[in-house]
User: Fold this.
Amino acid sequence: MKAKIMTKIAISGFQHETNTFAPGFTTFQQFKDRGGWPGLTRGDMIFEEFKGLNIPISGFFEACKHDIHPIVWAMAEPGGFVAEDAFETIVQDIVKGVKSAAPDALYLDLHGAMVTESFDDAEAEILRRLRTGMGNDFPIVISLDLHANISPALFDLADAVAIYRTYPHVDFAKTGARAAALLERVLTGPVFKAFRQIPFMMPITAQSTHHEPAKSLYAALPDDPLLSADIAMGFPPADIPDCGPAVLAYAETQDLADAEVDKVVRKFIAAEKEFDARLMSAAAAVEKATNLPGPVVIADPQDNPGAGGTGDTTGILRALVDANAQDAILGLLLDPVAAAKAHEAGVGARFSVSLGGRHRQYSEPLECTVEVIAITDGIFRCTGPMFDGNLVDLGKMARLKIEKTDIEVVVNSNKCQNLDQEFFRNVGLEPKEHKIICVKSAVHFMADYQRVTDQILFAVAKGANPCDLSEIPYTRLREGLRY
Ligand SMILES: [Zn+2]
Assistant:
């Protein structure tokens, strides 16, 4: 009897969500370092680092029964254009690694909204280079973020695509597992596919699957590798022609794929008017929170580091101070200088500080005196539904009480969106014990903080992720795209 030859599957990952309006570039160092996500990881270390985590590549290799060959995985917190050298270094690693492994197929854990100065559609460029090396018949299946801006080119270059179906994204690993099922389909027979872009965009605060209409649109998607359909909601702060939502489907015949895509697109377009950004002014949010029984969460979606926000704006903090808000906590405010000063001064020390506001185009620093209540190294494991078990390194952290107020601010040093209550617990704050909880996040915070309260307000303060899309100075969107 002949020995069964195992199918060899290479796996790799390269994720970035690029806000083309955000200041600065996203550097190779940011991909290399651990932050909210693991740092750049190569080879078999990927099994060790990612085992059991809620990350697409983890879900893929845990579900895939073939011989798995890991190449490299890298991700950086959302921000400005990916620097060319970072892109080239990581892509060349992937292409070389795949070529030398000579696998039967490839799975890629991608985002779908990566932009460099040279490439509007960086993911399509990655696939183009792989196709040059491996040919058009080489099976490539990818998974993408719900915020992917999918171009027709990217869709054409991939044999199949699986997309997160939850926002907050609690199904990272599940999507990796769906990609493994799709790959199995691609390996066993012809798969027909269909793709349509949606003619309008909506801000990310309108995209949550906790709210309508996204909730029903996603709930109706088929969950079967024989007939699979997915929706990407798009990532609006990206001035590229293929910005915005898209729908795709895979089926056993072209007619079935087309029919499924058209069905989802019809529902999506019919729901256009229902997408609601749910925004109110920062002053109104603080006033409303004050009048509600606590706890109340005030989100700062426009300075969400998870959408390219700088994480240091003071708009909401100022609204809290102006209203003399009681029992309010705010985090994370990215301020490595204040964090270092607190570590130097020690617990119990008081000092005057210019808090946050390093990017003056959005806000000014808050001049105040603070007392250091706690300091930590910012390295801990998360417990919320999105990041459960994930080891994060947020850099030096400090819990600071602003003098003459009842407001405490948690500062950190490595940019990360506050999507897990451990971000507060790490410095000794238990969110549910406080009246007003302010988080720099647009939607992801809901995964964990909705366990504490359903009283959630979305406040407007100036930042790099405008949620009123009419404020964004687009120049390169495709003709006819509404927003
Ligand atoms: Zn996303």
